[in-house]
Structures are given as structure tokens and as C-alpha cells.
Design a protein that fits this description.
Blueprint: H1 2-149, H2 155-166
Length: about 170
């Protein structure tokens, strides 16, 4: 059995040495990659720093302008809102006045039509009724005079009128 333990110890030692060699190789590769990334990062930093400095200067110069623009935009919005409210108030008043005028015109027109209708009724009643009564009286008077005179229609006239009714 002691042979097996020695074999396992030798195998374990070889495995540990191989692992150490792999870890050493990984460490060396990682260090080389870190140097390369550091070089790239410093190069990128050297290129980006002037751009960021320019952007920072532009923003510092533009800060007052942007604040002024924002103030002007707020003022413009306030003025536009005020004007819109005035226009709305004017349109509302105009529509209300128009509605009142339409109601007034309707009342005037309705009153006028009622007066015209009443005048027509009065005209018919006051003028036509007496004319009809006078006409009826004249017809009655004529019939009475015809009766008194004894005038009778000729026979041929009566038959002609009867025949006309049937034709």
C-alpha cells in the first residue's frame, strides 16, 4: 500500500507544479495585457482631455446664453398664454353678444309675425265680413226684386244650366 501513497504524492506534486506553471503564465499574460490596456487608456485620455476641456469651456461660455434663452422662452410662454386668454375672453364675449342679438332678433321677428297675423285677421274680420254681408244683402235684394217683378228665367236657360252641371 505504501506504493500507492507514493504514486499519489508524485501525481499530486506534478499536478501542483503544472498548476503553478499555468498560473505563472496567466500572471505574465495578464501583466502584459494590463500594460497594453494602460497604454491604450493613457493614449485615449491624452486625446479626450483636450476635447473635454473645449466642451467645458464652451458650456461655461454658453451657460449665460442658455440661461437667457430659457428666461426668454419662459417670458414668451407667459405672454402667449396671456394673449390666448385674452383672445378666448374676446371670442366668448363675442359669441355671447351674438347669442343675445340672435335671441333679440328672434323675439322681434316673432312679435312682428304675430302683429302681421293679428292685422291680417283683423283685416279679414273688419273688411271682408262687411263686404260679404253687403254682397249677401245685394243678392237678397236682387232676388227680392226679381221675385217682386215676377221675372222668371226662361225654360231653355234652366235646362242649359242643368245640362252643364251633368256634363
Amino acid at each position: 500500500m505504501s506504493g500507492w501513497i507514493e504514486a499519489f504524492i508524485v501525481v499530486a506534486t506534478i499536478a501542483i507544479v503544472v498548476q503553478m506553471a499555468i498560473l505563472l503564465a496567466m500572471f505574465i499574460q495578464m501583466r502584459a495585457a494590463m500594460r497594453q490596456f494602460m497604454g491604450i487608456a493613457s493614449d485615449l485620455q491624452a486625446r479626450i482631455d483636450p476635447i473635454l476641456l473645449r466642451i467645458n469651456n464652451i458650456l461655461a461660455d454658453s451657460e449665460d446664453r442658455i440661461a437667457s434663452i430659457m428666461g426668454d422662452a419662459a417670458e414668451l410662454t407667459r405672454v402667449a398664454r396671456t394673449q390666448a386668454q385674452k383672445v378666448d375672453r374676446l371670442f366668448t364675449e363675442a359669441v355671447e353678444r351674438l347669442r343675445i342679438q340672435v335671441i333679440r332678433a328672434d323675439q322681434i321677428l316673432t312679435g312682428t309675425l304675430e302683429v302681421i297675423e293679428e292685422a291680417g285677421s283683423t283685416f279679414r274680420r273688419k273688411l271682408w265680413e262687411p263686404i260679404q254681408q253687403a254682397s249677401a244683402m245685394l243678392k237678397g235684394l236682387k232676388a227680392g226684386l226679381d221675385f217682386i217683378r215676377g221675372q222668371k228665367r226662361p225654360k231653355s236657360e234652366e235646362t242649359t244650366q242643368d245640362e252643364e252641371l251633368f256634363i
